[in-house]
Design a protein that fits this description.
Oligomer: single chain
Structural class: alpha+beta
């Protein structure tokens, strides 16, 4: 065979087709990989963490409610009483807020529906303040950081 002389004509069509096929398949796989990485963070990491936070907030709200009912149960006729308690500083590495308050009851304006709200960003848990909602008004807020105090004064507290 002499250089420059071909007995068969060269067909480069199959080489180009193979390269285009390789590029298209690689592009589709890369797009699927990017979509999967975006979904993995939400579905595998954030949703279970949010469920854990919700359950922890419910437990914290129930604990605060129980402590408030205990203070009310031993509250003196005249005088005051305080108790200190600790709740977790952080849940899943982030701080949160605890708020005790109420909403006016449309059926009976003299009674407000008391609740304990534990929240952070878009995760909120409302726990009913059982036992004292009909007879006493409770108010206040705190965070998980430090030692928290529940106080009762038979004369009431001045709102500032």
């Amino acid at each position: 065979m002499k250089p420059g002389h071909c007995t068969k004509p060269l067909h480069n069509d199959s080489a180009v087709a193979n390269m285009i096929e390789y590029l298209m398949i690689s592009a589709v796989i890369m797009v699927l990989l990017i979509v999967m990485l975006l979904l993995v963070n939400t579905n595998i990491m954030e949703n279970p963490a949010n469920r854990l936070v919700y359950v922890a907030f419910t437990d914290i709200g129930n604990g605060v409610s129980t402590r408030m009912v205990d203070v009310y149960a031993i509250a003196p006729q005249s005088g005051n009483i305080s108790t200190k308690f600790d709740i977790p500083d952080e849940i899943v590495g982030r701080s949160y807020f605890v708020e005790v308050g109420g909403n006016e009851n449309p059926d009976n304006p003299d009674i407000s529906d008391q609740y304990i709200r534990v929240y952070r960003n878009d995760i909120t848990t409302d726990i009913a303040l059982a036992g004292i909602a009909a007879s006493r008004s409770a108010k206040g807020s705190t965070t998980g950081a430090g030692v928290n105090v529940i106080s009762y004064d038979s004369g009431g507290f001045n709102e500032t």
